[in-house]
Amino acid sequence: MSGLTHLDEKGHARMVDVSEKAVTHREAVARAEVRMLPETLALILSGGHKKGDVLAVARIAGIQAAKRTSELIPLCHPLMLSKVEVELVPVEADSRIDITATCKLAGQTGVEMEALTAASVAALTLYDMCKAVDRGMVIGNVRVLEKQGGKSGHWKLEE
After folding, report:
1. Which of 72, 141, 159, 146 is nearest to 115 (CA)?
2. For the purposes of burial, counting CB atoms within 10 Å of the CB of 55, is it exposed (0-12), middle (13-18) or buried (19 or more)?
3. pLDDT tens per residue, range 77-119
4. What HEC string does 4-33 produce?
5. Do 66 and 101 contact (CB within 8 A), yes or no?
6. Is 158 annotated as ligand-binding?
7. Does 94 qualify as catalytic in the annotation?
């Protein structure tokens, strides 16, 4: 059998049974970035976008997406998240917005997918709100930065 945990003994996809796992505090941090034209970033930061506060809408979209991850990702467990935080940081020197999503819970399975979903949907929302002024925006570098809790303990991406 492979090291993939979503496969049963016959090689079929399945939802992992976590009922025997201990409840532990778990946290995951994920990041994404959106690169854009300097004029697009300036428009977002000025608050002059006709669609309103782009960063606030992207933040809320990321939070909502984290809470609905199990509806979007097959075989993902529905989780009762205790915290979802989405931070959007403009980096004017590189004309980008860095998105960091943090998800927490006390539960039997990790929250990496929720953090990745939050960061991704926040990035997609930025694109959606600004595509009329900058169709060349690039969403990228979506990755887990850190996870804590559970049997595997603490892991951090070495950048």
Report:
1. 146
2. buried
3. 888 999 999 999 999 999 999 999 999 998 888 899 999 999 9
4. CCCECCCCCECCCCCCCCCCEEEEEEEEEE
5. yes
6. no
7. no
| Residue listed under structure tokens 């009922």 | 19
Active-site entry in 8, 17, 128, 134: 128
Rounded to two decimals, what is the model's pTM?
0.89
25 is in an annotated binding site: no
Taking a C-beta distance cutoff of 8 angstroms, is the pair 46, 110 a contact?
A: no
77: Cβ contacts below 8 Å, ≥ 6 apart: 15, 16, 18, 70, 109
Tokens 């930025």 sit on residue:
126
Q: Is 113 annotated as belonging to a binding site?
A: yes
Torsions phi, psi of 157, nearest 5? Answer: -70, 130
